[in-house]
Amino acid sequence: MASLGLGGPVGFCFATTGFCSALLVARVWEYVSLESYLRCGLSCPIRSSDVFQLHHFYYGLAMLLLATSFLAVTKRQRVRWDAALMFGIGAGLCIDEAGLLLLRVPYNDLLSIFLLALFGSAIFGGTINAAFRDGTREFRILDRADILTLLSILLGMAGVLYLDRPLITIVEIAGGVSWAFALALATLFGKKHFLRVWARPG
User: Higher-confidence residue: 5 or 69?
Assistant: First the structure.
């Protein structure tokens, strides 16, 4: 069953983690942007040409398409797990703004929140179902390199908050620290993880 869907219990767990993390980063980004612009008023820089001003819905959509492509063509377990993480991150970014862009309701409208809760419940329920259906044995395959590489990816995503301008100082510091830890973890453990992911089966 691990070769289907999101790659079994670990794949669903990675997707759920990616979804929740992306949602948290997106909501913090929007909150920080609003608070920053309320503070600086007319002195705020114009960001109309800034690539990071593009709605994160579109970044999420690109990640969803890429992840779905991997999930559709590969049966290798670890590749599917990484693709499931990307799928979860993409889904979080997409659904966070689905109400705003597709349904034309305010970003914090109850309908927008309902969409997030609905998808979050569905993917979390899928994780529980996969764990009961297939068992939790494949979690034992994960080692320190896998887990810390996953953490480095999530920290790297959190570090995107550093790019928002104007920015609250504490968030700028948190974003920079997140990137520093992400780079350190990726350097120490990422190579082992990705070499194992892309190694040809023996």
Answer: 69
The predicted structure's pLDDT at residue 41: 55
Res. 168: pLDDT tops 80: no
Report the interhelical angle of 77-101 vs 8-40 (nearest 10°): 40
Which pTM value belongs to this model?
0.84
Contact 115, 95 (CB under 8 A): yes
* Residue position matching structure tokens 């609250």: 168
Return the pLDDT at 54.
65
Q: DSSP states of 134-179 as a string?
A: H-SGGGGG--HHHHHHHHHHHHHHHGGGGG-SS--HHHHHHHHHHH
User: For residue 10, what are the CA distances in angstroms to 108, 140, 185?
Assistant: 31, 10, 21
At 40, list the tokens.
Answer: 């600086």
Report the alpha-carbon distance of residue 162 to residue 164 in Å, rounded: 6
Is there a contact between 199 and 76 (Cβ–Cβ < 8 Å)?
A: no
**Residue 166: cis peptide before it, omega within 30 degrees of 0:** yes
Distance, in Å, from the CA atom of 158 to the CA atom of 29, rounded to the nearest integer, reads 9
